[in-house]
Amino acid sequence: MARSFPSRRMAPLLLLAAVPTLLAFDYGTSILVRSEADIIELEYMGEIDEELRDQLLDLFDNPLDLNTASREDLVLLPEVTYGLADRIVERRGDRSFDNARQVREVVGRSIYNEIKPFVTTMKVPEPPEPIKGTVSVRYLDKFQDDKPPVASIKAKVRYHKWLEAGVLVAEEQGVYGVSYDNDAITVQGMRPQVSLERVYATIDRGDWAVMMGHYKAGFGQRLTFDVTDKQRPHGFYQDLKITEDYEDYDSYSVSRRLLGVAASTERHLGAEGPTLDLTFFASSNPHDLYYTYFSPHDYTVTGDEDVLYPTFPLVYREDIVGLNASLIWAKRIHAGFTGWGGHVSKAYDFEFTGTPIPNRDFYGALGVDGAYGLGMVDVFGEVAVTDTGGLGARAETVIDPGMIEASVAMRYYGEGFDNPHSRGSAEPDQYRCDDDGGELDCEITGGDRDRDEIGPQVKLVFDPFGWIRLRAKGDVWRVPSEQITHSYVEGRLDIDPIDYVGLDFVAYLRDKDISTGGRDQDYDDSDGQGAKSALGAGLTVQPVDPLIVQAFAKQVWEDSSAYTDGFMNDRYAWGKVIWDVTEDVELAGRVKFYDERIDTHDAGMEYWSVYGQARGKLFGQLTLFARYEQIHDLDNPEADPNPEHKLKVGGDFRF
User: Fold this and answer.
1) What are the structural domains of the chain?
2) How confident is the model over 45-64, as pLDDT tens digits?
3) Measured CA distances, 197 to 172, 214, 339, 378, 549 (Å)
4) How far apart are CA 109 and CA 364, in angstroms?
5) Lowest pLDDT segment from 171-175, 228-232, 537-541, 651-655
6) What is the pTM of this model?
7) Residue 603: CB partners within 8 Å, gap ≥ 6?
8) C-alpha to C-alpha distance for 425 and 100, rounded to whole angstroms
9) 311-330 and 333-346: which strand pairing?
10) What separation in angstroms does the CA of 386 have from each of 280, 285, 453, 500?
11) Is the pLDDT of residue 225 over 90?
């Protein structure tokens, strides 16, 4: 259940609460996937970032109902513009979709191939059963190693439409016998452990709702508070997501969320007045920390076994209390206020250099956001201030005259704006460097996304004929404290000359000074400039209706002069085949080659891999899934094991 604040009778008005961005959402690459593992691999290869990965995983786990999804949710689907979303809404207004395949008549064959895993249709011709639910089981194993497999089970149950509960239990190898003594950690060893990762219950009575347990929440332009996977959140949502480790298949991660209670209610302020929506949330959530946030000497092993790459449990607890109040006048007009405060209690005394939590006991932020839309123009924005007085602001104007959708935005994040729960439109810093007597002093920040920068952002989608589409992004930001400027330019051209063939071209250039504080870049003391650029091309062919063939190749050049004297080259290519045997049975396979090299060194990584996967639905209620992959190390052919073998199997049962 994705519960924000709406009662069902208020849903049309509250579409604006997400602060609509009329520009279609762009993932920057073709999203031709058929499993969670396919999505995770895109992030591992650098095609999408972690935030987009989580958004796609959320859509995959909770497909949009084509008959009820809002316009703002529909444009989060790959390649779906606001124009296409309007056509989907118009089509279902005439007659509802009986199955997801019918949307192909609206969006076309190539776009349907990309959105298929993320859409569904709910048929309710007769009164629904009082109890409905889903049970999902996953098993992952990387053969030929000494780690146990990872397993998880997730269950959601709904009673009528007003009561819902969910639970997630997972198993992996973890540390045991852990104790914290001020600035020292001792651990006995590692063994397989079963953990209750997520649990929640929700009561939704239309004009009020309450959620207890684990949940995620966010508001406005995500500048004051947001811990969701959504681009335009408003309110609180259930959270049962677990992310598998694509590389080793022997671990998983669970995002930092909230644990406590959230409640919302709405009130009409007179017959002609606005609607007042109030949302309250409180959380007291213990957090684990992965070992990379410590040096190897920060923990002592008391047992005989090795303890490598541990995640230490319950290292700190974060307490949060917050409130959002929104006044809604019309679908495209609203104003909102958000305020929250947090406190950290540490079980181990260390600096939070590797987490987004500030190094102070109490922190928080206040912010206001709003939107006003008329005709083809929408203007919206948000201003937030942290407890230390740091200021952050973002404003955007969106124009949608038809074949062109354009957005121009300006943001300002002050040097003191260190809001740990802000998720504005900027890439997270990997490092932060200060000049210490002529030498750079750098430390890992782990996620200062919105801090110490000012600059414009431009986005453009040009679709003149329906078969050719140009997407462009431009981003320029200046770091006032360092007096340096960075830029980012990206372009993407999609051509579908005939219904069965699609071409995809991608290029980008990132210019960054890796000596004084770039983005997404490991660096050391150097006075050189850093740059990262890429060129890519893809071809998708559908020779017969149930068969899709895709080929893609990409070359990435990255200036690595900060830590070596050459350029790092990433080259990869893959070929993929998807066969929709029937509406309920699909097969897929892929061969991939990857090579990462430094020009002046022999160091690098080169491998090729192949996988096959199958998904099938039985009796309309049971879905089974299996994926097998081999990875062949070309750099070290005598490595043990070589090749590596990975297996993932699972099932979903709906009742």
Assistant:
1) 574-655 (2.20.200)
2) 878 877 788 889 989 988 99
3) 12, 9, 28, 41, 38
4) 47
5) 228-232
6) 0.85
7) 597
8) 32
9) antiparallel
10) 19, 21, 16, 52
11) yes
